[in-house]
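This part of the workshop introduces the protein records we will be handling. A learned vocabulary of local backbone shapes supplies the integers on the structure line. Getting from the letters to the tokens is the skill we practise here. As an example, a complete record with its sequence and its structure tokens follows.
=====
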Amino acid sequence: MRDDLIHDPKGGMPRLREIMRRLRDPQTGCPWDIEQTFASIAPYTIEEAYEVADAIEREAWGELKGELGDLLFQSVFHAQMAEDAGLFNFDDVANAIADKMVARHPHVFGDESRDKSAEQQTRDWETVKAAERAAKDEKGVLDGVALGLPALTRAVKLQNRAARVGFDWPQTDQVLDKVAEEMAELREATDPAHRAEEFGDLLFVMANLARHLDIDPEDALRAANLKFTRRFGAVEAALAEQGRHPKDSTLEEMDALWDAAKRTEKASG
């Protein structure tokens, strides 16, 4: 038992890995940690990644250190479960990503010139990744796009892959026409299953529109969520000044307060 390392405030990665090993020890560890699997931990991993993104979005730099630590712990957790199962260990994980970064940056770690445009570096990057996919026997254009990605992000990645082989609208106006077509089909849908399908088609085309406009749809939607939260908070605050709650007011009243909040935001620039 390495209690000296466990309690060393400057123990760094060795300390964190020892803590994880102790938590998973079948005899003396934490029952909850012992019974976890890759599948049961995966949702927490995704959640921690979003909390990192949230701290960055809010520029909450004081929180970012802790959120990055939470995300790092998820990697350590998965690596420990893999080691317990005899699959690989944390050093294998670190070496794999190090090897990948060296291979993908020959202009930094190899003998290729750094005198390249961003566009050329992007093309070179895609060439290297294509070779990696071939080595994994991923033959289809869309093979290897992770299923666990947020749906909008995965839609954009799928569309980018298809665009590389020419399956794409050349003009943004054509995408806008497709948006209108999908909206019309959604209006005509009658049963729930058909409506859900058409709504999915509309979201997929909206993701494509974002790609053509050089907009990250996840970022755009997060910003819209923040704006909605901020403005609805202003509605609640205005009602609270009257000693009221949103549930005690009408839609017309709340809509008027919403418009007032919107005007105030625009006036303040």
Summary: The two ends are 59 Å apart (CA to CA).
